[in-house]
Every structure is written in C-alpha cells, then in structure tokens.
From TrEMBL:
<feature type="compositionally biased region" description="Basic and acidic residues">
    <location>
        <begin position="176"/>
        <end position="193"/>
    </location>
</feature>
<feature type="region of interest" description="Disordered">
    <location>
        <begin position="1"/>
        <end position="29"/>
    </location>
</feature>
<feature type="region of interest" description="Disordered">
    <location>
        <begin position="172"/>
        <end position="198"/>
    </location>
</feature>
<protein>
    <submittedName>
        <fullName>Uncharacterized protein</fullName>
    </submittedName>
</protein>
<feature type="compositionally biased region" description="Polar residues">
    <location>
        <begin position="1"/>
        <end position="21"/>
    </location>
</feature>
C-alpha cells in the first residue's frame, strides 16, 4: 500500500514537470560569440570574399571623407616595417591594424564600435564582413610564416582581441582630443571676453578722464571768455573815443578864406 502511494506521487511529479516543459516557450540556442570559428566555417578563399564591399559601407556613413588605401599599398608598408620580422603575433596584429584603420573601417567607425560577442559591450560590433576580409589578407600575406591552419586561426583569435583593444584606444584618443579642443575654445573665448572687458574699462576710464578734464577746464574757459569780452569792449570804447575827439577837432578849426586872383599886375 505504501509503495503504491509513493509510485503515484512520482507519476504526478513527472506529469507536472512535463506540463511545465510543454508550457514554457522554446529556448533558442545561444548565439556563439566566437567570430573566428564563424569566419573559419565560411572559409577565407578568394570566392568567399568576392561579394564583400571594402571599405565596408558603414565606414563612409561614419566618415564621408574617408579615403582608403589600396590593399597593395598596405601590404607594401607591412613588408617595409622590420619591427615585426621576429614575432608572428605582433606582425599579424600590425597588419590587421593597418587594414582596419586605413582600408576596411576607418578610425571614426572604429571609435564607435568594438569586437565582442552579443551583450558583451554597449558598443556595436565592427561589421563581420570586414573582419572576414582582414582574415583573408592576413592568411594570404602570412601563409609562409604560419603554414599550420590551426595555428593561424589561434593567432587570428588574438588579433580580434587586439582589434577590440585598438577600438578602445582610438575612442579614448578621439575623446581626449575632443576635450582638448573644447578646453582650447573655452580658453580662447575667455581671452576674448577678458580683452573686451579690459578694452571697455579703458574706454570708460578715458571718458571719465575727459569729463573730469572738461569740468576742471570749465572755470578757466569761462574766465578766458570774460577777459576776451572785456578786452574787446575796452578796445572798442577807446576807438570810439579817439574818433569822437578827432571829429571835435575838425569842427573847431575855421575854414580858410576864399581864393581871389591878384589884379594889380597889369
């Protein structure tokens, strides 16, 4: 009897679990964040990248003035650089950085993105097709240095991590330059305001000095005006007096006798 009851309970538990399993929504398989594995599955032959647009269209959306270098130019620059001759990882990271910045993405797009799995970053990922193209060029250029397929993909996995780090550095660099430009504009604006304020102070002081000078000179000007008026009146009065005396002298002098011809001479 006890065993029968225990068996019934087990059956009930199994039915409840089955019911919950049927009622719950179907869970999707988690999206893999292994971009290297995804690109490797697609392959990196010439045909696999034939439809990829390089630079990626997003590069021009972020920077309409972006001017990409050619693949040949970048490969030539890579071979001219001797710092990466001994270290394969360093060499591939350097080649991928040049491709990303100068041909595939551009620094402005890189500053807005990263290389990470879904929900691993608040920034969007670099376009996968661009990373696919970078893998193709790296494989073509460095095949003689890394002939083993597994080793190549392991090194390229490290390259993608360094691309993410490069995106962070570019982002930080652009942010720093932007802050420096803002600080420079603020300093220049403050200098202009200071110059205007100083010029206004000088102008105000000059006007105040002119007003004070005029006030101080007003009594002197008034005195000069009064003295000039007195001098002019005195001169005019003297002239009138002289003319009057001259007129009186003329009036008091008798007129000469009329001229008569001498008739005594025959």
């Amino acid at each position: 009897m006890l065993n029968s009851s225990h068996g019934s309970q087990n059956t009930l538990v199994r039915q409840q679990r089955q019911h919950l399993a049927n009622a719950s929504p179907c869970r999707k398989k988690p999206v893999s964040d292994d971009y290297v594995k995804f690109i490797r599955q697609k392959g990196i032959s010439q045909s696999s990248i034939s439809d990829i647009k390089i630079p990626v269209p997003q590069a021009y959306l972020s920077d309409p003035g972006f001017t990409p270098c050619s693949e040949e130019q970048i490969i030539h620059q890579f071979h001219q650089n001797r710092r990466c001759d001994d270290d394969v990882r360093k060499a591939m990271a350097f080649l991928s950085k040049m491709l990303a910045e100068k041909r595939v993405f551009g620094t402005k797009l890189m500053a807005q993105t990263t290389v990470a799995g879904p929900n691993h970053s608040t920034y969007k990922n670099l376009p996968e097709e661009g990373i696919h193209y970078i893998a193709y060029v790296c494989r073509k250029v460095m095949m003689h240095r890394i002939p083993n397929e597994d080793e190549f993909w392991e090194v390229f996995r490290d390259v993608t991590r360094k691309l993410a780090a490069r995106c962070r550095r570019v982002r930080h660099s652009k942010k720093t330059r932007s802050e420096e430009r803002d600080a420079k504009r603020l300093r220049e604006s403050s200098a202009v305001d200071h110059h205007r304020h100083h010029h206004l102070q000088i102008s105000t002081t000059a006007v105040a000095v002119d007003n004070d000078a005029l006030k101080a000179a007003a009594p002197l000007l008034s005195n000069l005006k009064s003295n000039a008026t007195d001098t002019f009146n005195a001169a005019l009065e003297h002239r009138l007096q002289v003319n009057e005396e001259h007129l009186k002298g003329i009036q008091s002098t008798p007129l000469q006798a009329s001229f008569k011809p001498d008739t005594s001479v025959a």
